[in-house]
Amino acid sequence: MPELDPRPYDALLLLSFGGPEGPDDVVPFLENVTRGRGIPRERLKEVGRHYYLFDGVSPINAQNRELLDALRKDFAEHGLDLPVYWGNRNWAPYLTDTLRTMVNDGHRRIAVLATSAYASYSGCRQYRENLADALTTLQDEGLPVPRVDKLRHYFNHPGFVRPMVDGVLASLAELPEGARAAAHIAFTTHSIPTAAADTSGTPADHTEHGEGGAYVAQHLDVARVITDAVRAETGIEHPWRLVYQSRSGAPHIPWLEPDICDHLEELHAAGVPAVVMAPIGFVSDHMEVKYDLDTEATAKAAELGLPVTRSATVGADPRFAAAVRDLLLERAATERGAAPERCALGALGASHDLCPLGCCPARTPRPAAAGADWTGPATA
């Protein structure tokens, strides 16, 4: 375990997506998410219909509060005296407001944990762009500009993977006994445009022929680790596939496939007796899990007469909170010039600390903080 010394960091920021917390919030939230795309308000009302099935409340904010509590509890129990704050990209508490509070509280060197475990534009660089925008706003307001460092991708950290292994094992146990041994595992993640997938990760990861770059490679590696652990625990080699969900955008733009509902139809047609849906691409049970899997995909399985279960996401599992502590102390030691052990399962190894030039590029180049290409306002 890294030495229990957070220097040079004086605070941790939990950075997430955000979500509406009532019916009146849904369209304004979606306006934040889609700002600059010119989507009519009436279309946003249609897009947001699944939120209204849950009284206009996304689970993500409550889940972030639980994770915030878990992090603070873990830090306190291990004698790590470091405050933890929370800010969102698209809803209150907004990132800029939280950073302003942190600066006014005296913090100048901030570690950032994004609630996205994998490499992609929307899961990494866009968060860095949001950080850059917030830092520029602070500078324009005449406030000190803190240095922010985004913690590395944690898709293969044991504290993220082990809870998902337990979730898959529990879901297999919930299936009908006669179907359990031959059950398939559908590992799911958010679909993204294939062009974004192919340019995800560092330039060395980028692909030209639909192979998916780091985004697909990282998910496949995690899926293999989980299936190997399940086999070690049960003695059964369960067939599996990485599939996708939550596609949006123009239909003529290629996105990663197959969709989970299409995959369920294929498995049913092939005579598969049961399926575990394992949402390894999501940190918590937010709307894409609650609606796209628990509602839409589960309804499709019921229509087919195909038994399905859905495994739990990591959420506020104490092992994940401990992993965040580990990542923080690891990065702190590196910043002090040490070479700490970097925990990682699977074949890919630990991810980079500093996003290099060309990592998960944007369609339209924008400043992005916490990376090798950051040339924004001078930081403290």
Describe the protein:
The structure is a single chain. The protein has about 375 residues and is α/β, with parallel strands linked by helices. Helices cover about 40% and strands about 10% of the residues. It has 14 helices and eight strands. A four-stranded parallel sheet has the order 2-1-3-4, sandwiched between helices. Strands 6-5-7-8 form a four-stranded parallel sheet, sandwiched between helices. Strand 3 (about 110-115), helix 6 (about 120-140) and strand 4 (about 145-150) form a beta-alpha-beta unit. Helix 4 packs across helix 14 (about 320-335) and helix 5 crosses helix 6 (about 120-140). The radius of gyration is 21 Å and the shape is globular. The protein starts with 10 loop residues before the first strand and ends in a 45-residue tail after the last helix.
The succession of helices and strands, N to C, reads EHHHHEHEHEHHEHHEHEHHEH
Hey, roughly how much beta strand do the residues contain? 5-15%
- Which spans of ≥5 residues are poorly predicted at pLDDT below 50? none
- Mean pLDDT comes to 95
Tell me roughly what share of residues is in helical segments: 40-55%
Biggest sheet strand line-up: 2-1-3-4
Cα(first) to Cα(last) distance is 29 Å
Number of beta strands: 8
The rough form would be described as globular
Assign the structural class, choosing from mainly alpha, mainly beta, alpha/beta, alpha+beta, or little secondary structure: alpha/beta
How can the largest sheet be summarized? 4 strands, parallel
Could you tell me the radius of gyration in angstroms?
Answer: 21 Å
Count the DSSP helices. 14
